[in-house]
Here is the input.
Amino acid sequence: MPRRPPVNLTLRPATTDDLAVLADITVDSAFGGTPPDGFATPYLDHELATGAGIVATEDGSPVGFGILLTRGDISNLAELFVRRGTQSQGVGAAILVRLLEDAPPRLFTVASSDPRALALYARHGIVPRWPDWDLRAEAAALDLPPTNLTVVEVAWDDEGWADWDRRCAGRPRASEHGYLRDTCSGVPLLFRKGAATVGYACVQMAGDTGAGNTAVIGPLGARDAGIAPAVALAAARWAVARRPVVQIDLPGPHAACASLIRAGFRIVGQGTFMSNMPTDFMDPACYAPIGAEFF
Ligand SMILES: CC(C)(COP(=O)(O)OP(=O)(O)OC[C@H]1O[C@@H](n2cnc3c(N)ncnc32)[C@H](O)[C@@H]1OP(=O)(O)O)[C@@H](O)C(=O)NCCC(=O)NCCS
Here is the structure.
């Protein structure tokens, strides 16, 4: 039998005043109160500034929240967390239903492995499309083959880079470019084969979870699946020359998965990309996201 939501549950829009409590709910919900070393939530500031958030309170105390990021006509359910002591009582469902009321019809999310999340989304027509892997490597364990690509660092106002991102991500998202530049110390890169540009990437030198020794690759996109492994390998070579640990969030169908794993990357986590529409706005064989929150 489904349990009933708490009787005194109230839903209200989230504001930037809620930042500390949303971070606290995230840590309680995802890690039982003890986050991994270096975990931080600067991404929540950006999500609240550019998205729509809902907070659920029980008797006035926040017990859960969700955040929807809409770019163009596509929404990304970036957050849905309920405090451990209040889970499985319908709070997540209530937040999701409220968020969907104002969402455009096209929506996706990267779900955790929690069956409650997967079931909740599936019942709202948001169905699994592919596994999404967190790949990680220590420089010492990597044996990256050379590529015949040239890596070019460009400026954040480079229109060519922004255009690559719009085409590969399938949405305009200038606000994420500011976030990558200012919060993640991102370096925008283009990849050339001879005179032709065949891919783009950002390497986040600070990441967005606070691990200072880690370079996070993302977004990354390639002209086609044939060249995608070389683009990913070239990005990894660039990153590993500058940080001892490298991470990339890669769709399972990405053409570079085999090459990166062969070179020494390890799967350290898995989410599920789910959407209520065909995913023709992006090609998971050629595109890797900023991260699970900003796919
Ligand atoms: C995922 C989460 C947000 C869902 O919120 P919640 O308030 O616990 O979930 P709800 O009670 O509203 O709904 C969960 C539903 O999943 C169902 N469910 C639970 N386990 C299930 C399983 N193994 N198979 C199928 N359905 C299952 C429940 O029966 C419930 O449906 P019902 O109310 O009709 O019975 C919450 O559990 C949470 O914070 N989890 C940890 C963090 C996390 O993984 N967040 C998701 C990020 S994508």
